[in-house]
Amino acid sequence: NAGVMQNPRHLVRRRGQEARLRCSPMKGHSHVYWYRQLPEEGLKFMVYLQKENIIDESGMPKERFSAEFPKEGPSILRIQQVVRGDSAAYFCASSPSPGQASDTGELFFGEGSRLTVL
Amino acid sequence: AQSVSQHNHHVILSEAASLELGCNYSYGGTVNLFWYVQYPGQHLQLLLKYFSGDPLVKGIKGFEAEFIKSKFSFNLRKPSVQWSDTAEYFCAVRRAGGTSYGKLTFGQGTILTVHP
Description:
- The structure holds two protein chains of two kinds.
- Chain A is mainly beta.
- Helices cover 0% and strands 49% of the residues of chain A.
- In chain A, strands 2, 4, 5, 6, 9, 10 and 11 form a seven-stranded mixed sheet that branches.
- The N and C termini of chain A lie far apart (32 Å).
- Chain B is 0% helix and 53% strand.
- In chain B, 35% of the residues are buried.
- The chains are: A mainly beta, B mainly beta.
């Protein structure tokens, strides 16, 4: 699965800076999901987007975090004023429109973006 | 909201040993169930999934899982592990239907280390 592309793979930021993580879904996929992986905590759901629409952001911290999936271009996860606790691997996944004929139920994952906050 | 619990954080086995990783979920409605694997330095890959039908599901690389509805469980098994199975394994659940259909909820993962 080389279809879901995330960049950068590694990002280092100092406290207070902004981090932008990008995700291009697999061709033909209209739904994007962001997950955060902290050591020994597994994958935590953050946000679920469709083109130009946030479907579920129940896992997003209330402050400093935002996500978008514009009509053109990749999905972006933005973290403002980063703190050391934001250091983690951020994974993006994509799928076709759930419930449609092409939907196998599977989410296809990218290789992740590892954020380190100094 | 649904949740997923994986019983073991770290399992260590010797090659040829049998494997069973536990997974329980908490949701009373209809669910779709998944096991993903993450090899060191790689992205998550699907091992197998259950939607309906035969509760014993066979996946890639000799893995299988059994859905037991009464126990809300979906345990992963392999009769004889190999060194190359060393990886982290994640159980995941998806509610069948609803506005957030598509989203998977993952367990905390089980790290499997297989010694040659």
